[in-house]
Amino acid sequence: MSVLPMKHMIVCAKRQDRKAILEKLQRTEAVEIIARDDDEQDTVFNRIDVSQSAQLFVKNSAQAEKALEVLNSAAPEKSSLLSAFAGRTPITLEEYEANAKRRDKVMKDVTDILKLDKELTEAKADIPRITTQIEALTPWIGLTEPLSFAGTKKTAAFIGTFPELLTEAEIAERLAAAVPDVEALDVNVINSEDNITSVLISCLKTEKDKVEEALRRMNFQRPPVSDMIPSEQLDAYDRELKAAVAKIDSTRESIASYADKRDDIKFIADYFRMRAEKYDVLGTLAQTKRTFIIEGYVPEQYAGTLEQDLSQSFDVAVEMLDPDPSEDVPVLLKNGPFAEPVEGIIESYSMPGAGELDPTTPVACFYYILFGMMLSDFAYGALMSIATFVLIKKLKNMERPMRKTLTMFFYCGLGTMLSGILFGSYFGDAPTVIASTFFGKTLEVPKLIDPLSQPMKMLVLCFAIGIVHLFAGLVINLYTALKQKRYVDAISDSVLWMLLVAGLLLFGLTTDMVTGMFSLEKISPVAGNIGKIMAVIGAIGIILMDGRESKNWFKRTLKGLYGLYNVTGYLSDLLSYSRLLALGLATSVISSVFNQMGSMVAGTPVIGVIFFALIFLVGHVLNLAINALGAYVHANRLQYVDFFGKFYNGGGRKFTPFATNTKYIKIQDR
Prior knowledge:
Blueprint: E1 2-3, E2 6-14, H1 18-28, E3 32-33, H2 51-74, H3 83-86, E4 89-92, H4 93-101, H5 103-137, E5 155-162, H6 168-178, E6 185-193, E7 196-204, H7 208-217, H8 230-256, H9 262-282, E8 286-287, E9 291-299, H10 300-313, E10 316-321, E11 333-334, H11 343-349, H12 360-375, H13 378-394, H14 400-423, H15 430-438, H16 455-483, H17 487-508, H18 512-517, H19 525-545, H20 553-565, H21 567-576, H22 578-600, H23 605-643, E12 665-668
Parallel strand pairs: 4-12
Antiparallel strand pairs: 1-11, 2-9, 2-10, 3-9, 5-7, 6-7, 8-9
Helix pairs in contact: 2-5, 2-8, 2-9, 5-8, 12-14, 12-22, 12-23, 13-14, 15-22, 16-17, 16-21, 16-22, 17-19, 19-20, 22-23
């Protein structure tokens, strides 16, 4: 376990080579470039404004992404259930350069797809418009005149609707009451539904104004004017609707015809994304008319190779320096195959601060055990390990973070299998239930501890693991302090607390209360006396030294007493490990419940087996998913709160190299 030492790299090169050098650094992914602020400029060096070019590249990348969305909608990409784990497509540098030369042609395809998408959107918008027009005109299908019909030379016609259901007689009666002096009046109801009455009313032209005024008082409303007979207009709308549907289908087919260009579009989206990132960095570099300077951090183990590579490829001056203690140097972890998978757990909390030990290896050792204790079923662990192992071996291009995560769960599965053997859990008590239900046999599964019948024994084991876990944190704190030559801190913050806690534990094991509560045998009184002495020495030392930063003896004593009170925190931390028992019991009990439910419906030979298998499958899949999530969350909690609280402060900044942050492709630089 280690934090890789860093070198401060300074590169001075010709300005004409800056893009090529940046591209090389981007592909090697070994340098975190330092972006200097504008106020650090001087009279020699300056920075160029590349914002417009960067914005253009971002725009092109966004257009390519949009084109992919359109293409995937019209012609979905075939993918398997494992595609989410597959990772990016690897391409060689030669393939990258060849594809980059075709960027203009691919961008034309992108433009064409987006143009077709716009046409598709417009055609789709026509559908509700035409449908609304058809619905509005449908009540007038029985009308033999256009809606714009206003009458003949001697008659006036009123075409419109009343906001209620009325018969011809009712309309005529209301009009007669409203305009009793009108002699000639003809009412024709065209349609009556949904509380709307569509009518054609005719009268003499000489009486048009009177009738129109009466209709207005009756809330008469005219429809949109049209010069076509409604039936003919409906036929026209129907043809227009079919044309719009045909346009949608043909446009979708046209878009789908670009399916063979999908990989090219993916490449171009990543290509412009990379160029935008490169130009963002380019704008931060100090430059003159003929030269430029790059500063950054490089892991020491890569510094020599990178310096040699740059010197052979370009006319450059490269200097690798040890960082100044005042610099904010990024942190990069380096661990072996066993511990590396849990680096993500460390990063989620915080990277090691200056001078701190990389906690990855001790975290890994305990993490796999704690996870296994909480899931605690051999079959669940075997399924987890087998599934992750197959994925890791099958998908060679899997991204490194995903590979590390799956490897972590592979080891967690092994820890779960070990706990399953310890507790005799194989899909809970499935072997016993199956043997008794289907074969009439009694099967006893060997186990060292039965959590259901021996919960106190299980709890003692959990507390024992917790004690080892907490003391490991104190030992690491001691090692770190000694390494940094903080000898007083090593004694006061580690040794004294170990004496106090270990002494109290030894003394507790000689008392009736502790041994009776946990069904333990008392240890030798001599060991108890030794424990008392250890605890007293530890307590006195903490009182005297915990407030050592204060010069006033009274304040120092008060701070020491307050520090001693923190012994209750150790009790709280120790009790936290009871969650190992709680989650382990939850997994076991839920498994047993599903097994019993399956056995209850296993009456008839064939149907019973089917129902048992169905309940067994669904129940155990749910149990595995829920309790694996719980084990993951609580294993993290025990590391972050209880373990890290003894020695780890964090506060470091993760090493973030200038890299090809692509979405679809991964360049293999020879």
